Amino acid sequence: MTNSLLSQSINLFAAMLLIVVFAMISQRRILRVIHLFTLQGATLVATTVVVGYLTGQSHLYYSAAITFVFKVILIPVVLHRVIDKLNVRWDVETLINIPTTMLVGIVLVIFSFNMALPISQLSTSIARGTLGIALACFLLSFMMMITRAKAVPQVIGFLSMENSLFFAASAATSGMPMIVELGIAFDVLAGILILGVFMFQIREQFDSLDIRHLEKLKED
Amino acid sequence: MSLSGFLSQLLEILVALIAAPLLMGWINAWRAWLQNKSAPSLLQPYRTLHKLFHKESVVAESATPIFRIAPYIVFGCMALACGIVPTLSTDLPLSPAADAIALVGIFAVARFFIALAAMDIGTAFGSLGARREMLIGFLAEPALLMVLFTASLITRSTSLTNIVENLASREFVIYPSLLISGLAFLMVSLAENARVPVDNPATHLELTMIHEALILEYSGRHLALIEWAVALKLFAYTCIGAALFVPWGLAKASAPEAMILAIPMLVVKLAAAGFFLAVIETVNAKMRIFRVPEFLGTAFLLAVIALLVHVLLGA
């Protein structure tokens, strides 16, 4: 009984991840996007722990712990510091046409659900049904990177893409080898630090975080 | 039609007619308490109805018969809707008359007539309100249908009584799809019942009102019927929500005596829903009218995702 409820809760968490990504796409305030990213990380941790418990694989607990430290604590803290220093904490981004973006999002979801169905039938893992959701989250985060004009939400889109990949890995197989996970975790942390420096550079050059300025190669 | 079915149907409509204004009063009281005001009596809606029924009804000179019959049609639609939604028992002789899709149609008929009546007089406010109401209606209906479809897919039936019976008799399973569509349903019902993020039921501020602009020209017994219909609509939506997402505690056809238990259960559900609604109305500000399409678009999106998640996960 407990086990069946737990395995159902994996589906629940997966659905939550999908909703959080959609919320990120439609959110105007940078601060809220960061909160949503933290929530996404926490959901990921919960899923990993449940999958670890159900399959009895103890290394998933370690990977959950790493995810918790990096994606729920360290990276959000770094992001908060970055938006404080850049003074964009209360920035409101003008997004173009949220309903259209959402409709494109639905199309992406249908596409990835269709794609994932035959793949997940090959898998034997406990959370195989959620592979479609992981793929959809991945594509939606990718779309978030495309539709956003400011640098910080783009970076969050990138991080959320990484989260979805992680979720896909634990959904399709039962987690990656420890060494790969550690490597990715440090890569992402290094990535965010470099991107942070990069954001300061953009601001320094153009007095704005709008990456459209990067399209101009020189001052005219 | 069995006698017990007939009785439960009658009792259900009576309970709806009596309890709907009380639900309104309960929400208003909680709203006042949460906002640190002294609350009106719980019975205030009954007093308002009583007062309005005893007042003279004034009708504009330019009014056509549509203006006169609209309140009766709206009231009739809402009472019928309350008769179809299983609130106390799933043994309802009326329910084969209309399934979940037709129920949305009944709400649409009521909206159509109230919008016609508002435009009938030819005042600016009336047509303004009618347009806004239709805008909200045409965005909210597809989302509501999607929510109902998700429940129908899970239970393989579009009849509300079958859906509720099926959901209530299953072993407890977490349905992510139902959870998401519950969220969508909440957003839709806020918009459909003209509650706070979309419309403020307590305001007569000219430029922001939607529902109040529609009924500005009504008075006396017509207004009383419309106010009662509004309460019935809120009651019906609360009961649809309770039926789809907390379907436990209803009496079945085989055990009509469970109705005695179903009544306190219904009271608990309604009280909780009313309190929840008051909290939502207190912590949210009314949004700009042009944000409403976005709000309802999100509701539609959530409902569609719920449907897709059900197809993918089978849960």
Explained architecture:
The complex is a heterodimer of chains A (220) and B (315). Chain A is mostly helical and 220 residues long. Chain A is 78% helix and 0% strand. Chain A has one domain. Chain A has helices spanning 2-26, 30-55, 59-86, 98-122, 131-147, 151-172, 178-206. In chain A, helix 2 packs antiparallel against helix 3, helix 2 (30-55) packs parallel to helix 6 and helix 4 (98-122) packs antiparallel against helix 5 (131-147). Chain A starts with a helix and ends in a 14-residue tail after the last helix. In chain A, 40% of the residues are buried. Chain B has 315 residues and is an all-alpha fold. Chain B has one domain. The radius of gyration of chain B is 19 Å and the shape is globular. At the A-B interface, helix 1 and helix 4 of A face helix 7 and helix 11 of B.
- The assembly state of the depicted protein chains is heterodimer
The total number of structural domains of chain B is: 1
Report the radius of gyration of chain A as a whole number of Å: 18 Å
Fraction of helical residues of chain B: 55-70%
Flag low-confidence runs of chain A: none
The proportion of residues in beta strands of chain A is under 5%
Report, as a whole number of angstroms, the end-to-end distance of chain B.
35 Å
**How would a textbook summarize the main sheet of chain A?**
none
Question: Which overall shape of chain B is indicated by the principal axes computed on the Cα atoms?
Answer: globular
Structural class per helix/strand content of chain A?
A: mainly alpha
Summarize the topology:
The complex is a heterodimer of chains A (about 220) and B (about 325).
Chain A: H1 2-26, H2 30-55, H3 59-86, H4 98-122, H5 131-147, H6 151-172, H7 178-206
Helix pairs in contact in A: 1-2, 1-5, 2-3, 2-6, 3-7, 4-5, 5-6, 6-7
Chain B: H1 3-34, H2 44-53, H3 65-84, H4 100-120, H5 124-155, H6 160-169, H7 176-192, H8 211-214, H9 220-245, H10 259-283, H11 292-313
